[in-house]
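Hello K.,

You asked for the raw outputs rather than the summary table, so here they are, unedited. I folded two proteins back to back in the same session to keep the settings identical. This is the first:
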Amino acid sequence: MTSPAGAAAAVPAGSLALRLRDLDKDFAGTRALNKASLAVRRGTVHALLGGNGSGKSTTIKILAGVYTADAGELEIFGRAYDLSHYSPTTAQDAGLRFVHQDLGLFNELSIEENFALDSGYPRRGGGIDWRALRHHVRALLEEYELKLDPSQPINTLRPSDQTMVAIARALQGQTSGQERILVLDEPTARLAAHESELLLDQVRRRAEAGQTVIIVSHRLREVLSVAHDFTVYRDGRVAGALVDAAPSEEQLIELMAGRSVAALRPTGQASHARTEVVLSVKNLRSGPVKGVSFDVHHGEILGLTGLVGSGRSSVLKTLFGEFAPSSGDMTLEGKRYAPSCVSQAVAAGVALVPEDRAREAAFADQSVSENISVARLKENWSGGWMPRKRERDAARRLIAEFGIKTAGPDALLSSMSGGNQQKTIIARWLNRAPRVLLLDEPTQGVDVMSRADIYALIREAASRGCAVIVASSDLSEINALADRTLVLSRGKITAEVQAGELDVDGLNRLVLRERPTSPADPADKTEPNA
């Protein structure tokens, strides 16, 4: 490991693909980056790590030309760039290519059409030369060892192939001897474990062939399996830089957090499950869900896991009234439960923290207090108006209770880190004291520090008697949280595991045992995100 100050100097300049030095960036008086640096060697996978709010996302946006740095020096393949006049076009011309968590693909269009939208359609005789386009795209897919038909719609591909298509599209046009840097921002955040392995294997092969890659991810085990070098940010500064190293996960976490890993990585929890059944589901059929039955008890944390298309998310959305079941029976505390809409589910005491926070739960341009109070508007509404003082006072109490790091109740949700946004959404629903709390990928895109806080909030809810159902593709999360786990495959329960019976590897074997044989399985089409 090198010191933060000597990180860039430790690597010979001639071997560098990219060098950032003394990078500063302020947002309305808040210092996001303070003399940060980054030195990326040619032909390596370089992991840029840090907790939410550490400055890594700001760095990526500066490299992409989205943000303008206040100060700093940038060199790409030995050429210096003026950051005060740096733009997305400059980044493109310099050889930087970005693939974000939101892949930017058009799901209803074919693979070849997505490529053409980026590079242009070949023309012939006044029209589109589809044959030339197909030949061009097929050659690119073969280069990336993707056995796909260029005419396939994007939404028929498995998630790892969608990401690889986005990577191939980003790097298309790269000629022999021409160097580019591929920046992957949370590429596996939406992928199940086996899908992540497929993608990372492809990334590894590209690096072996000489491709330079910068990867940003919260999944440290995956990063450790693929990265050569590591730069860790904390509070806008470099907390550590490791060149050609093999650190442990604990070392990286301690660099990110600045404190002992023991407080951040709880290995088990006391079960608060009781004998009384809160929610009973019998022979539920809904979309890809094909006859699922289970009970959830007071104080129990029930885990749902499975591959993409298994039906885990559809189970939650049916319980929350978003999806209408085609058949089956549900009871909530002994009474028939059949919500025809979300408002009926909420009135019955059921709450959902969805997988896609940005699209389905967060009001980014509204304040923290407004995001929290939205679940209790009827109770808070008085005489045709909302008493803002009451709303802010309630928000202040919940901010303190849930450990939400924010400038205050009037701060915009968009000004906060992903982990604190997620805690705000969880606070919104726990403020209603729900009978059943449904959580879909509750720590997706969240750093290890916020993850520990969220786990504590979930366990505290269970200790108060709330029945909790957690759907997650992260088997470490399921293993750490669940009192009991149901493994789903193609809409059916294929295994039930009590806490402590299996470790993560054992759970993974159960999940993969019923792997779908086709990437275009009908269940995947019905429910693209699981």
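The second followed immediately with the same parameters:
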Amino acid sequence: MKILLVYPYFIDRRINEEDVSAIPMGLYYVGAMLLANGYAVEILNAWDLGTNPDRIYRILDDKRPDVIGFSILHANRWGGIDIARMVKKVNPQAHVVFGGVGATFLWEHFLQHFSEIDYVVRGEGETSFLELVRYLEKKETAAPDHIAGLAFRKEGRPCATEDREPAADLDSLPMPADYFTFQHLSLTRGCPSGCTFCGSPAFWKRRTRFHSVDYFISQLQRLVSRGIRFFFVSDDTFTLKPNRVIEICRRIIELKLDITWAAISRVDCVDGEMLAWMRRAGCTQISYGVESGSPKIRALYRKNISDADICRAFALTVRFGIMARAYFIYGAPQESDATIDESLDLMRRIRPLSAIFYILDLFPGTELYEQYKRRTGATDDIWLDRVEDILYYETDETLDKQRVLEFGRRLREGYFAMLPEFAAAIELEEDPALFPLHADFLSRLALTFSHGDYVANPAIGDRLPTAIRLFERALSYHPDHRAFWGLGLVYQQLQRWEDSVEILLRGIRHYAASADLRMALANSLMRLGRPLEAHEHLLPVGDHPRAMEMLVHCCRLLKDHEGEKTWLDRLKAAAQAKSP
């Protein structure tokens, strides 16, 4: 049987496409299970195909899968429904299977209202999907009542089999990296917390299972061997077992895996020893769910953390040179100007260097959604509307759209206005062994102010002065390539050409083979009318296409026609060698 696994598109556009563009890890695990058992499987990432149905039809017509499995997160359910309808038009005999957290909580709704959906895999999907494929392959006429964790129609009515027990040993699952290449990793499944806005408590039953260190490292090594150097560790709380995290970090260091990575944690699940190991092993960012500065609202979310926990975690994380990112949610029950003030006050104390702000949504499987249904008498039929979600304020008479949007505006503008102060107030651990990592951390942050995410944000003042201070502070710890290069570029933006030359020359003394430093230096030298010096500094990196272009320009300024022709010929030859 030919099997196609699909990650469908969302109907609403995202400002940050990386929020939705990555295939969920669960789909890779299902694919690995099928491949390990001899089935032909492909994965289609259709996150960006919402405006291109013709391409989807061509893919379906070309691949002609017998079984199509969809990873449904709820907000992409309409993309799944749309593509399922296309599947049935191309091949009415194909079997459409929905799975994932969104399908688990709405299995009855999907089967009752959408005839193009044949089966729903509920909960953890690897074994259930494999058993369903084997059942379909045999073309049995009896209903698949024997397959746990499945839902389907029986005598025209939706029905479900018994729940499937989650895999007791996660290491027994085939390793996705044996078959696929990706950047998202997980050490665990599940989360012990009971946050009311999250579907994890109902999906995983507040149980957490762990891969072994060997499994995690083996998967990491396979991906690194294919050139992946940055990873998202996607666990709800990666740091639940500090000793296991430290062992992972030790192994990364011992194996000399040259990687950087970001993780998610809780503010009450980190300590200094573990953070130091994480930083040495390449961790550059940890995201924490703060949610609100109001203890009253955090209690409504069942977010059992204190202000002291939050302040401690953010100070420790930054101290070891890791970006501490805060998640905030607004538009909650009992949200007011006073609770927003509390959030802004907490920001001043924890000084997050990155923050994400969300309006509170209601999703199936969450306690807040169940409360909403009990309060209003609503049913899952509300999801027949072509919407991705329901905003909480739409269900609360004490809130309205304009007021909630104003809450968001105050949080965002207040945060970004304070951000340069936060950057200036960074306190780092005075451990010489960490100094090169501190330089790396500060230069990364500086680049967000000079060339990255913060450049186009009008709410952030003093962007270039902040970048300069951070680059200079980075270099006070260690000669850092990014700091030399970034500071040279900032001086160029300010037309401080002599300062740019000076800092870039310093950088080249440490990184003589750097094409970036030499090309930036050549640019400043030519601005100062010194093309001969620019030419000399470009020669050691003359095999770089951009350097060749600059050498052509230098020769023209020097009226060196023979040199100009030589570099033009080399540039043309490089372009021909690169073209297929």
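The chain is about 50% helix and 15% strand.

Happy to rerun anything if the numbers look odd on your end.

Regards,
P.
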